[in-house]
Fold this protein.
Amino acid sequence: MNIVDIESTQNKRIKHVVKLRKRSFRDDERELLIEGYRECLRGYEAEHAMHALFMCPALFLGANEETLIRDIHDRGATIYECSEEAFRKISYRDRPDGLLALGAYRDTDLANFPVAENGLYLIAESVEKPGNLGTLLRSADAAGVTGLILCDPQTDLHNPNVVRASVGTLFTVPVATATREQTLQWLRENGIKYAATTPDTDTLHWDADLTGPLALAVGAEQYGLTDEMLDGADIVLRISMHGKADSLNVATSATVVLYEALRQRAQQSAD
């Protein structure tokens, strides 16, 4: 296996990786930072294109890194072995684990988004925080959703913190980005009803019919869904709240309702 050694923090490749923290540079290069063993592993398993892998054995936390490095190398990636100082320069984590890959941007064209006969989708409208988007991806992956539509996104899907918060599930969930109008048109054209979450309704999430082709729509952390999304919804529901708080984190809300949809579908199949 051919490995390129990098000792200096002033190496041009190190400087290139650091510049990728800026969205404008990422967009120009269409390169994605993938840091961490689990994140790189999930990218590899999903056959996501990775063209470079930076490693620092002194920072490895386990015993499986060498196998993953060889696998990624065999797919065509260039391997760079960094000094600890050089790797810490490119890492955006407090406790790096010695692996950081560069990959291609994901295809997020709505025209290539999957349509399933009994699909379960998640729509995230104007979500602002990378951490919340990453957690939404984790929930979508865990619930086995058909896909996630980022509707009028206010954060960058390819932000390194999205990759980190998703723990690599960015690569396991089909994702599309679209405007609100494009999203609603896509739902109508494919015969998919959608359920909107809001505290301003009497219908609890476990009383709503969440079977059949369905998209669950959740909104921005501070303001929730827009009036346009609420007005066009086939189902408007709320999550029962019993404490002093009047709302849940957007990813938590999505998880609760997605699992209720799974429960109803499992019950329907059993009947």
Remarks:
- The first strand starts at residue 3 and ends at 6.
- The two ends are 55 Å apart (CA to CA).
- The CA atoms of residues 239 and 248 lie 9 Å apart.
